Amino acid sequence: MVEISLEQVKAEITERKHLEDISLEITEGQHWAVVGANGSGKSALGRLLCNGLPVLSGSCRIPARSGFVSFEKIDEILEQERYNDDSDFLGYVTEGTRVDKFILSGTDDADGARLAELAQELGFTKILERGVKFLSTGEMRKTLICKALLQEPELLVLDEPFDGLDRDSSEVLRQLISRCIERGIQVVLLLNRFSEIMPETTHIAYLQECRILMSGTKDEMLGSEALRRFHAFHYTLPDTLPEVDTARSAPPLALGQPLIEMKDVTVRYGEKYVLNAVNWTVNAGEHWKITGPNGSGKSTLLSLVSGDNPQAYANDISLFGRKKGSGESVWDIKKRIGLVSTSLQQEYRVGGTVKVVVISGMYDSIGMYSQYTLHQQEIALEWLKLLHMDHRKEHAFRDLSYGEQRLVLLARAMVKQPDLLILDEPCQGLDDVNREMVLKLIDHLGRTGNTQILYVNHHAEDRIPCIENSMELVPAEGGGFTAVINS
């Protein structure tokens, strides 16, 4: 019996982009992985399977009850949290929607017991009383999966479920997906990494330019020489990097001056510690990798550096040779920093083309509020060309896929070749091809330019060779996490 049937479906993603001629049958007992390059339409297909896209032609038969978890869904929820946030009005940071209340919204009171069981399975009982807006990317993913499972779905579609999760959390999630399959839930995984295909996966579909190019059993597809050719790509590094707009460059740093000095740095909200007695120095010429489990404060640590966390001023922190709070402005700091993070991607909600988003990196702004020069435009286009995104230069940034947006924000971060490049999960949402390209380009920038790199990442295979120093955030006595330095 056919459970899911799509026949020659055309569905609208945006006004200028559609899924085309989609034919797919998923029968009882089948569990699919959908793979493809960034912008190929994987997330859109997931939304279609869960009745989330307007169908323009063709026929669909899909389950009545389905759950869909994606980066875009997380963005929508956090956007709503920001809209309802009264912190600025009240003069203090509010909790917002609690995790347990969020998960249980729209369910029966009896689901509280089921929530407790799922939270135990996923290992996140400690976050149930926290505000949704304070969750890490990995914690938010667990929360949405838990909410989807409480709806008792017939079909569960997970878009990049393992991205942003540490190793232990990834294994817990794998086990949970396996249990869902055992309970009779059909599972479709939308993946960038072939290595994340589950053992229980029976079939694979490969998307290219919003069409299903190939599909078949897992063994047939993984053994296909044609599939390897479609997905193969070898990146050639540029001979030289694009110019820098010297008119907007920060003055040179003093020779030998540490870029970052932190002494007994502590961040807490109320009685809850996030960071506890962190000591860390980044000397000239050093590149650093920062690791730690989900919720250990990696993004919080980086926000102290980027100027986006007000608790930086309550701590002993020096950046670029000046103690925080000694008269420098946030813009003095941002001028020396390039940043890629999930929170920046969530916050970059203003309209504008891809080209303008990259140029905004020279102004450290979200959006452009002054006239840029022809020279700045030329530099931005060179970076887009290096990342093979120049064909999208006039497209609206918000119309891009999650992975394509990530590539544009990487160009935005590197466009001024900053003193410090902060990369918080830079490869999140990127396919195998683009990940190889980005890692090579970052390493090239770290080796040949004057930029130092801070790199947060959960995947050991996503190595940047020029990075030789590492910090691991580990549980601290008294709560929160502290730093263990390996250099």
Mean pLDDT: 89
Helix fraction, binned, reads 25-40%
* Gross morphology: globular
Largest sheet: 6 strands, mixed
What's the Cα radius of gyration?
23 Å
Strand order of the largest sheet: 5-6-7-3-8-9
Measured by DSSP, the beta-strand proportion falls in 25-35%
Quote the distance from N terminus to C terminus.
Answer: 59 Å
- Write down how many β-strands occur, each being a DSSP E stretch of 2 or more residues: 19
Number of helices: 16
Please mark out the parts with pLDDT under 50 across 5 or more consecutive residues, or reply none.
Answer: none
Structural class: alpha/beta
Structure overview:
The protein is α/β, with parallel strands linked by helices and 487 residues long. It is 33% helix and 25% strand. It has helices spanning 42-49, 71-84, 87-90, 99-104, 111-122, 137-150, 167-182, 218-222, 225-231, 298-306, 330-334, 342-347, 354-363, 374-386, 402-414, 432-448, and strands spanning 2-14, 17-27, 32-36, 55-61, 66-69, 155-159, 186-191, 203-208, 211-217, 260-269, 272-282, 288-291, 316-319, 322-323, 337-340, 420-424, 452-456, 469-475, 481-486. It has a six-stranded mixed β-sheet with strand order 5-6-7-3-8-9, sandwiched between helices. Helix 7 links the parallel strand 6 (155-159) and strand 7. Helix 5 packs antiparallel against helix 6 (137-150), helix 13 crosses helix 14 (374-386) and helix 13 (354-363) packs parallel to helix 15.
